[in-house]
Amino acid sequence: MKTSLALPVTKVEKSKLPNTDFSNLTFGRTISDHMFVADYKNGEWTEPRIEPYAPLSLNPANATLHYGQSIFEGLKAYKNEKGEILVFRADANWRRLNESAERMCMPQLPEEIFLEGLVQLLELDKDWVPTAKGASLYIRPYMFATDDYIGVKPSDTYKFIIFTCPVGNYYNKPVSVKVETNFTRATEGGTGAAKTAGNYAASLYPALKAQKAGYDQLLWTDGKSHSKIEESGTMNIMFKINGKIITAPTNTGTILKGITRDSVIQLAKDWGVALEERFLTVGELETALNDGTLEEAFGTGTAATIAHVERIHVNGADYTLPQKNKDAFSNRVLTELDGIKYGKIQDDHNWIIKI
Ligand SMILES: *Cc1c(COP(=O)(O)O)cnc(C)c1O
Fold it and tell me: Model's pTM, two decimal places?
């Protein structure tokens, strides 16, 4: 991509690269040298710049720390065989960031600032994009309130930052999930469709309880009746029952509109695979588990791409799902998406931005 915004760049004095062990990356723990920063004040975004990744200085009265006006995104960059850097669907992340911003009374961020900041940051830190199979550079754009006083009202000032982390293959092992019918992630009228900090804070307690009981993740149900399957903590969820893929619709405002989810739906359409966007009820799930018509269950999200579900807990009973099978739909979409992301398969949908 050609860039046109002249960004001031302050480089690190000494890169952390020589001291980074790329063969031993824990997700989100290793952070690249630089970050992109822009500040919102007096009604506009100002001073877009690239700086060394370093601690921020915040006033103790910072509005985010008290009232949680904070939103984020997650996307990935990949290195192809020629060593070029490819980013998957960054424009969709920009759009979703602005949808979250709207819900949280935060300012819209122009596409130019998001994309130019991202591209120029990736150009500078290109050596941080790993080359190992299944590895990538996780990109974390986020925006938060920076007003310095106590009072529940939208902040007048904000900061937008992008930093990046080299990551290995995340969740390459199958996951076990528990259908949660007591706690709630999102309700109609709430903030479930926004990628906003508080949603994740509220999910920690029930998720920890499930982890203590031996499950990796929760499958959330609707907040009103707890009878409809919604999604997982950081992934949307899809089931294949009797040859048909079923995934929750996104028109209730309770489901995070995953870009991986959208990509899988597009591939199913391309291939003529039947897919329904509707709520699967907990009862239907139990029936399909009991009568053997549940063929596949998998999570979709940027971090994991496709996570095969191997065990589901529903209403006091544990069910083991069919083994991961190379002809499965989930495996086919994983191979296709990886092929597109690493530049090995033609990108028919204009999903890739080449840096
Ligand atoms: C980010 C996220 C997803 C997945 O979205 P992708 O764009 O596919 O990464 C799904 N559910 C929740 C709650 C999320 O936060």
Answer: 0.96
